[in-house]
Amino acid sequence: MSEYITITWWDYKLACFIVGGICMAVGLFIGELKHNPEGVKKKINKFMESIDQ
Q1: Sign of the C-alpha dihedral, residues 38, 43, 20, 7?
Q2: How far is CA 33 from the centre of its chain?
Q3: Cα–Cα–Cα angle for 33, 28, 38, rounded to 5 degrees
Q4: CA-to-CA distance for 7 and 28, rounded, in angstroms?
Q5: pLDDT digits (tens, 9 = 90+) for 2-46
Q6: 3 φ, ψ to 5°?
């Protein structure tokens, strides 16, 4: 007995939203690295300090 997985329009829409959000975040990060590498280093250092505490 095999069960079929049905993908509805909502599942497809949610998957596209998640993948699009990840791609947008990566694109923004790459753009920030290209145009403002010093600012990115400062943000990463602040983030690392907040994790250490």
Answers
A1: positive
A2: 15
A3: 25
A4: 30
A5: 678 888 888 999 999 999 999 999 999 999 889 988 988 888 899
A6: -105, 140
Cα 14 from Cα 24, distance rounded (Å): 15
Domain coordinates in residue numbering, the chain: 10-52
Residues 36-51 pLDDT 10s = 889 888 888 998 888 8
What is the rounded distance in angstroms from the CA atom of residue 36 to the CA atom of residue 7? Answer: 41
**Token representation of residue 11:** 């599942």
Residue 7: left (phi > 0), alpha (psi -120 to 50), or beta? Answer: beta
Residues with Cβ < 8 Å from 39, sequence gap 6 or more? 32
